[in-house]
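Renewal narrative, Specific Aim 1. Our central claim is that a sequence can be written position by position from structural information alone. The example that follows is taken directly from our test logs and has not been curated for this report. It begins with the structure tokens describing the chain, in the order in which they were read.
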């Protein structure tokens, strides 16, 4: 740090070091190796390092256990572990209830499960349509279309991993004629209207919805998550419904049906190709859970296959 003689401004000088590597022996306020949480605190530590005991890290990582996935990146600017529910220091500290030092970057905080969807077609989009679309990639708990900016909405997912998944697959897709923008919100939760206060139906609570695709542990839906595509996977089709019925249904929903095929060994499932990805997105929103009769509700998802 160098103070100038004319003003009290402090200027940070950054240069390349002659050192080729860093040798960190202690995890405390003066030094820290984020790849080695087992290092001792040493003298003069703040007590925060005690939160990084291996057992605490293992507990914080939950399903990841005490180890790491095969590929872990530690970006210089973020020091976070992609795909994990918590960054390494934040995870361990959260288990012990120890606050992180205020100087640590924001990426070490607990990831958010609330998404901000912007550039929406406010004349068409509804909380229900966003629930169905984002529900392809996780269980949506709440949706709020902003009252004063109806081309923006907040979507609260079940957890941060599902939020990241939905964001990665839906950011940039076309929805109702506009390019959808999806980012993480600064909000940690979507607030419901206070009792007695109406918001014109712009906020909906879907936390107990029967349409959640991932509420059952080990569900096969976890293995069939794909980016939006023009080919849709249809399932739960009753025997009485013919190919012509389904083609007519999707045509009436505004799509151009280009190809259709029942699964050879299971006529309860089929692939249907529409004219564009945007058409498929709109059709999925409108026809997922459509009543086909005989107590059968159509299940619609994006397919990795083509016809």
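The sequence written for that structure reads:
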């Amino acid at each position: 740090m160098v103070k100038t003689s004319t003003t009290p401004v402090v200027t940070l000088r950054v240069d390349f070091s002659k050192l080729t590597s860093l040798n960190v022996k202690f995890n405390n306020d003066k030094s820290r190796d984020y790849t080695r949480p087992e290092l001792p605190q040493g003298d003069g530590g703040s007590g925060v390092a005690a939160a990084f005991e291996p057992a605490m890290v293992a507990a914080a990582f939950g399903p990841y256990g005490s180890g790491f996935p095969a590929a872990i990146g530690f970006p210089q600017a973020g020091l976070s572990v992609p795909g994990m529910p918590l960054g390494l220091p934040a995870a361990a500290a959260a288990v012990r209830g120890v606050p992180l030092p205020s100087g640590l970057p924001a990426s070490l905080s607990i990831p958010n499960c609330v998404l901000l969807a912007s550039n929406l077609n406010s004349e068409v989009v509804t909380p229900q349509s966003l629930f169905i679309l984002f529900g392809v990639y996780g269980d949506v708990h709440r949706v709020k279309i902003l009252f004063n900016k109806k081309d923006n909405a907040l979507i609260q997912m079940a957890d941060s991993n599902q939020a990241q998944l939905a964001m990665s697959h839906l950011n940039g897709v076309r929805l109702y004629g506009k390019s959808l923008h999806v980012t993480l919100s600064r909000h940690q939760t979507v607030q419901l209207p206070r009792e007695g206060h109406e918001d014109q139906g712009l906020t909906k609570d879907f936390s107990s919805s029967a349409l959640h695709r991932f509420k059952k542990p080990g569900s096969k839906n976890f293995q069939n998550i794909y980016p939006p595509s023009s080919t849709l996977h249809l399932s739960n089709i009753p025997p009485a419904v013919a190919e012509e019925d389904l083609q007519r249904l999707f045509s009436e929903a505004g799509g151009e049906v280009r190809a259709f095929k029942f699964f050879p060994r299971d006529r309860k499932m089929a692939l249907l190709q529409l004219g564009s990805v945007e058409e498929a997105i709109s059709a999925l929103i409108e026809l997922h859970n459509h009543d086909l009769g005989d107590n059968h509700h159509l299940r619609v998802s994006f397919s990795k296959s083509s016809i």
